[in-house]
Structure formats: C-alpha cells, structure tokens
Amino acid sequence: AFLLADKHKRGYLDINDISALLEVRNKLGTKSDTSNSSSSPSRAPFDMDCDTIIRFFGNNHKGKLRIEAFSTFFCQLHLEIGRQAFQRKLKLSQHRVNSKDFFDLVIRYCGSNLPPGVVNRMKTILVHAEVDNSSASANANANDISNSNVAANDTNGESTIKQTESDNSTIINSPFGNLQTRRYGYSDFVAWQVLLTKLASVVSIFKDAIETKKKLLKDTDKKLTYEEIEKQLYLTKDDFKTACKILSSSLISRPEVDAIYSLFDLNNDGRIYLKNIEDVLTTAIYKEYTNIPIY
Q: How many angstroms separate the CA atoms of 281 and 257, rounded?
C-alpha cells in the first residue's frame, strides 16, 4: 500500500499523498454507494485538521511519513474515518443515532470481513429487536432505563412519545403496542469499533480464561463431576474485565464490555460460555480465531 501511495518514489508520503489516497477511496466509496443521499458517509469530506493527521504530519502538515510508520498510520486513519463519519451523523441526529443508522455505520466502517454470524447477530440485537415488543422490554430492563420524564402527544392523540432520562432511548406508545428505540452515542460507536477490530483477540481471551477456570475447578475440588464443572465454565462481565487485565495487561471500558456481551450473551443472563461464542461465529471461524487446527 505504501509503494502504491508513493507515486513519486521519494521514500516518504506527504500530506498531498494522503489527500490523493483519500480522494481515491472517496470515489470508490461513491461508486459502491447505492444511496442517492448527498449526506452519504462515502461522499463526505475527510477533516484533514483532525488529531490523527496532526500527530503524524504536525500542525503545519509539513511532516513526512516513511514506510516504517505507515502501517500504524493506516490503522489509525481507518479508525478516524469511521469516527468522523459517526460524528457527522450525530450532528444530523441531535447527538443520538437510531439503531438502524448505527448498525449501518458500524458495518460500513468497522465490519470489514466480519463473519456472517456476527453480522446477523448484530442485526438481531441492533435492528430487529427494535420492533419486537418483548425484546424492547428486555432491553429496557437490561439497560436500567428509568421512567420517562418528558412526554409529548401527537396531534391525533393516538400515540405518545416519551424520552428517557438517560436520553439513550425513546419509548413510543402507539396503537400497535409499546416500542422502544435505542439511541446510540459516540462512546457506543467506539466500543463496537474496538470490539470488531479486535474480535479474534476477544475470543482468545475468553478461551484462555475459561480453560484456566476449568483447570482451577478440577484442582480445587476433585469431587466435581464433568457436568458440574461444565456448568461453571462461563465468564461474567467482571470476570472478563479481570481476564483482560491478567491475560492482556489491558483495561476495557464499560461500553466495550456491554457490546461484547450483547453480541455473545445469547440469553441475556450475564454469562458467556465458549459454546455461545462458537454458536455466533460458527465452529470453523471459532477454531480459526483460537488457532486450533481444523481437521
């Protein structure tokens, strides 16, 4: 990629080379975009005064990017493109994005080569659940959404729209039942972006932590049966955060943990078993992510 971008064969890239690279990407995105909307993310200009550009090229944009730093820059640029697209959508959506738009943005900017099972699961929890009364009720309880403090009646008096105190959701009382639409902010987008770009690492942490837990159970209580041990081979959110600190020496934010558990906690009981992850990914991809040979 660096050699393609370095059209002048100088051994470095300047800000004009990056602008040309982004222009090509923008044109390719426009051709592949089926939307006629002028606000389509693929057509929106990139902010060249963002922190990512300044850190690599300086405040005056006079810096030079050599091949040794290109991969780091390219990864950061990819993240920045998605975050800028989400911020533009926020400005058009009163600082909160609805579930469908959120799903579209996450897939567009974070979903490169995602397993089909992950995409389908995301569609279920981010889009389909919004029109399912029982799922909406469960999501409301899970997110600890309080009783609304603002209400507005439509002009016909047939529907009531309530904004929750946390401003993360809108409850619509309509003739068709109570529907709750989740509203997403910037921290939610970053959380899903981190999860999907490090999905294989997340899966490996679960596998290593649960295998360690299995060994400890066997060593501490020899009387436990196979079935009794298997029932305890899960991680709660707190377990996973602890595992991240021990196994990867990294901290993880609450929105990131919430995103992980919404993806893999299939019955919303606050526990993730390896079988849950395998069910979402499929066995072949699970083994690929955990470096287990497939025979």
A: 18
Tell me: the pLDDT tens digits for 155-168?
Answer: 443 333 344 434 45
The sign of the dihedral angle between the CA atoms of 197, 199, 200, 201 is: positive
Contact 65, 56 (CB under 8 A): yes
Phi, psi torsion values for 98, nearest 5 degrees: -75, 170
Query: 């021990």: which residue's tokens?
Result: 246
Report d(CA 251, CA 241) in Å as an integer. Answer: 7
- Pick from 199, 192, 141: which is nearest to 171 by CA? 141
Nearest Cα to 27, choosing from 5, 46, 42, 40? 42
From residue 222, how far is each of 43, 83, 219, 274 by CA, in Å? 62, 51, 6, 23
CB 17 within 8 A of CB 5: yes
pLDDT of residue 162: 46
Is the model's pLDDT at 8 over the cut of 50?
yes
- What average pLDDT does the structure give for the chain? 80
Residue 75 neighbours by CB under 8 Å, 6+ apart = none
- The position carrying tokens 């970053």 is 190
Average pLDDT rounded to a whole number, residues 277-295: 84
- Cβ partners under 8 Å of residue 184, min gap 6: 96, 97, 98, 99, 102, 168
The angle at the Cα of 48, spanning 42 to 53, to the nearest 5 degrees, equals 115
Q: Provide the sign of the torsion angle of the four alpha carbons 77, 79, 81, 87, taken in this order.
A: negative
> Model pTM greater than 0.85?
no
Count of Cβ atoms closer than 10 Å to residue 288 Cβ: 16
Q: 144 — phi, psi (to 5°)? A: 55, 45
Helix (H, G, I), strand (E, B) or coil at 269: coil
